[in-house]
């Protein structure tokens, strides 16, 4: 069983930056593809970014390309989401997730992820 825990959320002004962290207990991250999703009030949870461990390749939603960066630290079993040039529309609860499927297929599909964290709130003020 994998337990996923996010941290690093908070309140920031538009144009500012935040870095989210995701740690996992259990098998090392090398056994999973890791993803970040977000859910704004009244909206469905949606894909933000993912990183595949076997090829160390990052994928992003169009809305965050050029602003967000996903990365990993294998030694610490940790994944990060660096968020720059934040906008009020980025306000949401951000979730970290892990999936056993190591391919790059359907990374944006939250149903393919096996383990989820409890989420961390990110609020961007205008």
Polypeptide structure, described:
The chain is an all-beta fold and 126 residues long. Helices cover 0% and strands 50% of the residues. It has no helices and eleven strands. The protein has strands at 3-7, 10-13, 18-25, 33-39, 46-52, 57-60, 68-73, 78-83, 92-99, 115-116, 120-125. The model has no long low-confidence stretch (mean pLDDT 92).
Question: What keyword list fits this structure?
Answer:
7-stranded mixed sheet; 126 residues; 50% strand; 0% helix; 4-stranded antiparallel sheet; mainly beta; single chain; 11 strands
Strand and helix map with partners:
Layout (H helix, E strand, L loop, with lengths): L2 E5 L2 E4 L4 E8 L7 E7 L6 E7 L4 E4 L7 E6 L4 E6 L8 E8 L15 E2 L3 E6 L1
Parallel strand pairs: 2-11
Antiparallel strand pairs: 1-3, 3-8, 4-5, 4-9, 5-6, 7-8, 9-10, 9-11
Task: Tell me briefly what this model is.
The protein has 126 residues and is an all-beta fold. The protein is 0% helix and 50% strand.
Principal-axes geometry comes out as: globular
The stretches of 5 or more residues where confidence is low (pLDDT under 50) are: none
Structure summary, number of beta strands: 11
Radius of gyration (CA) equals 13 Å
* Structural class estimated from helices and strands: mainly beta
> Order of SSEs, N→C?
EEEEEEEEEEE
Beta content: over 45%
The overall average pLDDT, rounded, is: 92
Termini, distance in Å? 40 Å
């Amino acid at each position: 069983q994998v337990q996923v825990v996010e941290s690093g959320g908070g309140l920031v002004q538009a144009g500012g930056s935040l870095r989210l962290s995701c740690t996992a207990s259990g098998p090392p991250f090398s056994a999973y593809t890791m993803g970040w999703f977000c859910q704004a009030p009244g909206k469905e949870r949606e894909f933000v970014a993912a990183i595949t461990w076997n090829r160390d390749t990052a994928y992003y939603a169009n809305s965050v390309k050029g602003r967000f960066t996903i990365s990993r630290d294998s030694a610490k079993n940790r994944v990060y989401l660096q968020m720059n040039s934040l906008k009020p529309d980025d306000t949401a609860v951000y979730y970290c997730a892990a999936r056993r499927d190591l391919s790059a297929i359907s990374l944006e599909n939250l149903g393919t992820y096996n383990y989820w964290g409890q989420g961390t709130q990110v609020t961007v003020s205008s």
